[in-house]
Amino acid sequence: MSKIVFSVTSPENYVTAVEHVTEALKSEGFGVLTTIDVSATLKAKLGVEHKPYAILGACNPHYAHQALEAVPDIGVLLPCNVVVREEEDGRVSVVFMDPESVLGLIADPAVEKVGHEGAEKLQRVAEAVGKD
Question: What PANTHER family does UniProt report for this protein, alphabetically (predicted)?
Fold first, then answer.
Protein backbone atom coordinates (compact mmCIF):
# COMPACT_ATOMS: atom_id res chain seq x y z
CA MET A 1 0.00 0.00 0.00
CA SER A 2 1.07 3.56 -0.57
CA LYS A 3 1.72 5.95 2.28
CA ILE A 4 -1.54 7.83 1.67
CA VAL A 5 -3.64 4.93 2.96
CA PHE A 6 -3.66 2.27 5.65
CA SER A 7 -5.91 -0.78 5.78
CA VAL A 8 -7.25 -3.67 7.79
CA THR A 9 -9.18 -6.83 7.02
CA SER A 10 -12.63 -7.06 8.55
CA PRO A 11 -13.69 -10.39 10.06
CA GLU A 12 -17.28 -9.55 9.04
CA ASN A 13 -19.18 -9.86 5.79
CA TYR A 14 -19.36 -6.83 3.52
CA VAL A 15 -22.76 -5.46 4.65
CA THR A 16 -21.96 -5.84 8.33
CA ALA A 17 -18.49 -4.34 7.80
CA VAL A 18 -19.97 -1.20 6.20
CA GLU A 19 -22.33 -0.81 9.17
CA HIS A 20 -19.54 -1.44 11.70
CA VAL A 21 -17.18 1.03 10.00
CA THR A 22 -19.92 3.68 9.97
CA GLU A 23 -20.57 3.20 13.69
CA ALA A 24 -16.87 3.18 14.56
CA LEU A 25 -16.38 6.41 12.61
CA LYS A 26 -19.26 7.95 14.54
CA SER A 27 -17.67 6.96 17.85
CA GLU A 28 -14.58 8.98 16.83
CA GLY A 29 -16.58 12.07 15.81
CA PHE A 30 -16.85 11.37 12.08
CA GLY A 31 -20.07 11.35 10.13
CA VAL A 32 -20.49 9.72 6.74
CA LEU A 33 -21.48 12.52 4.37
CA THR A 34 -21.64 10.34 1.28
CA THR A 35 -21.83 6.68 0.45
CA ILE A 36 -20.93 5.74 -3.08
CA ASP A 37 -21.95 2.21 -4.06
CA VAL A 38 -19.34 1.69 -6.77
CA SER A 39 -20.68 -1.76 -7.67
CA ALA A 40 -24.20 -0.44 -8.30
CA THR A 41 -22.86 2.51 -10.26
CA LEU A 42 -20.73 0.29 -12.52
CA LYS A 43 -23.72 -1.99 -13.08
CA ALA A 44 -26.05 0.92 -13.91
CA LYS A 45 -23.63 2.92 -16.06
CA LEU A 46 -21.58 0.19 -17.76
CA GLY A 47 -23.58 -3.00 -17.28
CA VAL A 48 -20.63 -4.69 -15.57
CA GLU A 49 -20.64 -6.80 -12.44
CA HIS A 50 -18.18 -5.88 -9.69
CA LYS A 51 -17.54 -7.23 -6.22
CA PRO A 52 -19.17 -5.14 -3.47
CA TYR A 53 -17.28 -1.86 -3.13
CA ALA A 54 -18.29 1.29 -1.27
CA ILE A 55 -16.60 4.63 -0.76
CA LEU A 56 -17.62 6.32 2.50
CA GLY A 57 -16.96 10.06 2.64
CA ALA A 58 -16.10 10.50 6.32
CA CYS A 59 -15.97 13.95 7.88
CA ASN A 60 -15.15 15.19 11.35
CA PRO A 61 -16.78 18.65 11.40
CA HIS A 62 -14.39 20.01 14.04
CA TYR A 63 -11.31 19.12 11.99
CA ALA A 64 -12.88 20.12 8.67
CA HIS A 65 -13.65 23.56 10.11
CA GLN A 66 -10.09 24.01 11.38
CA ALA A 67 -8.61 22.97 8.03
CA LEU A 68 -10.97 25.22 6.03
CA GLU A 69 -10.18 28.19 8.27
CA ALA A 70 -6.46 27.66 7.70
CA VAL A 71 -6.61 26.94 3.96
CA PRO A 72 -9.96 27.55 2.20
CA ASP A 73 -8.95 25.47 -0.85
CA ILE A 74 -8.34 22.40 1.32
CA GLY A 75 -11.85 21.22 0.50
CA VAL A 76 -10.43 19.49 -2.58
CA LEU A 77 -8.73 17.06 -0.19
CA LEU A 78 -11.82 16.45 1.93
CA PRO A 79 -13.58 14.34 3.12
CA CYS A 80 -11.46 11.47 4.41
CA ASN A 81 -12.53 8.61 2.19
CA VAL A 82 -12.84 5.10 3.55
CA VAL A 83 -13.22 2.18 1.14
CA VAL A 84 -14.96 -1.05 2.12
CA ARG A 85 -14.56 -3.74 -0.52
CA GLU A 86 -14.99 -7.45 -0.94
CA GLU A 87 -11.88 -9.12 -2.29
CA GLU A 88 -11.81 -11.97 -4.81
CA ASP A 89 -11.25 -14.49 -2.02
CA GLY A 90 -14.26 -13.16 -0.06
CA ARG A 91 -12.26 -11.23 2.53
CA VAL A 92 -13.43 -7.70 3.27
CA SER A 93 -10.82 -4.94 3.18
CA VAL A 94 -11.28 -1.57 4.85
CA VAL A 95 -8.93 1.07 3.43
CA PHE A 96 -8.53 4.49 5.06
CA MET A 97 -7.16 7.66 3.53
CA ASP A 98 -4.31 8.75 5.78
CA PRO A 99 -5.13 12.40 6.54
CA GLU A 100 -1.71 12.98 8.05
CA SER A 101 0.00 12.12 4.76
CA VAL A 102 -2.56 13.78 2.49
CA LEU A 103 -2.95 16.98 4.50
CA GLY A 104 0.81 17.01 5.02
CA LEU A 105 1.01 18.08 1.37
CA ILE A 106 -0.08 21.51 2.58
CA ALA A 107 2.73 23.47 4.20
CA ASP A 108 0.63 24.80 7.04
CA PRO A 109 1.18 23.85 10.71
CA ALA A 110 -2.54 24.11 11.56
CA VAL A 111 -3.44 21.73 8.74
CA GLU A 112 -0.65 19.34 9.66
CA LYS A 113 -2.00 19.23 13.22
CA VAL A 114 -5.50 18.43 11.92
CA GLY A 115 -4.04 15.68 9.74
CA HIS A 116 -2.13 14.15 12.65
CA GLU A 117 -5.10 14.18 15.01
CA GLY A 118 -7.47 12.90 12.32
CA ALA A 119 -5.08 10.05 11.52
CA GLU A 120 -4.97 9.03 15.17
CA LYS A 121 -8.77 8.83 15.25
CA LEU A 122 -8.96 6.86 12.01
CA GLN A 123 -6.30 4.45 13.31
CA ARG A 124 -8.58 3.78 16.29
CA VAL A 125 -11.46 3.15 13.87
CA ALA A 126 -9.25 0.68 11.98
CA GLU A 127 -8.40 -1.11 15.22
CA ALA A 128 -12.09 -1.33 16.12
CA VAL A 129 -13.22 -2.83 12.81
CA GLY A 130 -10.48 -5.15 11.75
CA LYS A 131 -7.16 -6.78 12.06
CA ASP A 132 -3.86 -5.99 10.34
Answer: SLR5037 PROTEIN (PTHR38342)
